[in-house]
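Risk register update: the risk of archive-format incompatibility is retired. Evidence:
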Amino acid sequence: MKRKELDILVIGGGITGAGILLEAARRGLTALLVEQRDFAWGTSSRSSKLVHGGLRYLAEGRLRLTRESVREREALLRDAPGLVEPQGFAFPDYGNSARKRRSFLAGLAVYDLLAGRREVHWLDADGFRMLAPNIRSEGLAGGIRYLDAKTDDARLVLRVLDEARSHGAEARNYVAVESLLRADGRVSGALLRDGRTGAAGEVAARVVVNATGAWACGIAGPGGQGRIPRLRPLRGSHLVLPAWRLPLAQAVSLMHPLDGRPVFAFPWEGVTLVGTTDVDHADGLACEAKVTRAEFDYLMAALRAQFPQLQLDDGDVLATYAGVRPVLDSGTRGAPSKETREHLVWDEPGLVAVTGGKLTTFRAIALDTLRHVARQLPGWRADLAPRPVFSPHAVPNGPRAVVPAVLRRLAGRHGRHAQALVDAARDGELDPIPGTLTPWAELRWAARREAVQRLEDLLLRRTRLGIQLRGGGIAHMARIRAICQPELGWSDAHWETEQAAYFQLCRSHYGLPGTDTHERTHA
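Archived output:
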């Protein structure tokens, strides 16, 4: 890291930082990204996995945000097949309000117009049951269906980072910013510390970008504390169930029986995701977020109300996860869901900071941030019009027995490396791990080439087995070890230490929550 002065140093390895790194590198800037934990460790691996146009924002009158979100959703669907995929959403109508139905359908007409589509959205009761056969039938008048999209959020971050590297950028995980450097009244770089070796070094940069999301207030420039906006960290929690226990072809909206909030259940990567809550995160940002018992019970109540015949109980849940969203605080202390999801960029000499926003609009956020960066880089002129998110790459060739959908999926997640991944696979490793859509070969490739430092990196972010399999994948750990330990070069003692830490993390933060008073109070 001791080099000549960088053009831009990006702090934060989530989707916002990754997007900024890519857009800077492809426009000729020398760029380095550092992340104090693992890539996508925070919000960007704990989202609802949805790439959506923001139908709710349209209902709130935020037309600009909706237009931007729809444009970015369509770009990702076009540029990232196999990673960003269409997902139908179904809303049952129990005949409670014809006015609300008409308003919803009118909003969808505008939604279609923004996307350049035209679809039929209303289905009668029989047609709707075909989409969602397990929903509550009593009083069903019909339903509404529309299209959005879904993704693997952590793999999206990794693909964006790899695209940035293809343009000459560098990215380092487990490297923390100890402090910002200052010279002549401006930020001039940062003192970095390697979390693995403890080594420290100064890196000079013409501009430093703070893209740490919910953690943005932890880094300020000279006199910068007064410029930092108020953030309202909001926690979103999710449940993961086996697809066979809650089988869905469409995403189904569950209007919660207690407060009328929409809760979604949808098919994702061989399992069914249920979420999300939207509550103030009162436990601070120093510790990893986790689902509280009250949130767990809230989501289960929605499932039981909408799918009573399935008789779902706590034991059906494979895993849970929670993330903290970087939401701008309006100061009204109103309902969390009413806070804006728009982003904000602010700057001081040598420092640009960005927070807020949403997964779908990361490219737009990156370009907006670079407009602020450009004002601090005399002589740099670049076209900041949107470009394709990813360079096109061919679907890899594989053995005849491998279905095309698997190869398409690998192309979407691994881009230019997909063929090398397929070529590295050993016998049977292109088969999916039971209960998931993940081929064993993805484990081998991640261990070999994707900067895995901890076992949790491998099983919670490079792959998602930690939330797709009961107990974090304990039933498959022997084969996972046989594939990955030699690739990682870990000794037996090192593997066993990492494995113990990983399973403890799965129990404490990704399993079913307890019932203690603290968890009930902080829901």
